[in-house]
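Hi R.,

Quick one: here's the Sugar ABC transporter permease sequence you asked about.
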Amino acid sequence: MRTPAGAINVERYQGAVAEGRFRRLWNANAPGYLFLLPWLIGFFGLTLGPALISLYLSFTDFDMLQSPRWVGMANYVRIATADPKFSAAMHVTLTYVVFSVPFKLTFALLVAMALNRGLRGLPIYRAIFYLPSLLGGSVAIAVLWRQLFASDGLVNAALSHFGIEGPSWISHPNYSIYTLVALSVWQFGSPMIIFLAGLRQIPQDMYEAASLDGASKFRQFYKITLPLLTPVIFFNAVVQTIEAFKAFTPAFIISGGTGGPINSTLFYTLYLYQEAFGNFRMGYASALAWILVVIIAIFTAFSFLSSRYWVHYDD
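And here's the predicted structure, written out as tokens:
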């Protein structure tokens, strides 16, 4: 049965209209896609692609010398049941997160409140205080930190002037993790800048009204500053928690890549590095990496779920 000529003409017309519409859209958006092309290449080639390959490798036995061998859930079962170093790394990492994040945010907020009092040369102070955040994650600063807290370092030299004989902080299992916490707190510049921006958004007339009502400075901070600053606190807390879970360079440099003494600085990322590039168990390291992704996702999801009870927005 032949198709009517009129129907063919209608189909051609519809096809021409669709093609013309596509060409107009392409001509209008082509420059935008071209500008996005480097990002798209980076996202698919350097982020999404390697992530999917890592997910596949987490179910294999792969030593980078032979082809991956599928083992199913064996890597995850071993992590959960037969890997004591995994438990040690999790304990060290959680200790670091629990101590470093609150102390860093508290110190950053205090400095931000001091800078918010209208100091002269504020841009200079902001730059000086932000500098540790730029340098703190470098190898050079980690080496310097190791020298500061060595048995004959500057910290013990200062304590000796007060008649105190300090231990070798970085080689004592009871103190080594806290030297890394101190290094993290020293890198307070990034959350400090964000806190300062948040403080600048709080209307000053609220403080003036509270002062007229006889509210003390502490009460103004507790009743005005903290509630209005909770969105900024929430943002900084989430970002700094994720960064703390991913910390690697200080522990690697200060412990010489071993996580010692007695695994006291064995960060999760450092253990992952040891398994991948020290023991050449790339499949097992990929499983460790995806467990870290899940842990960070759980903490982030919990933060967002709990934020409805303590984070106050304009509405």
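The chain is about 70% helix and 0% strand.

Cheers,
M.
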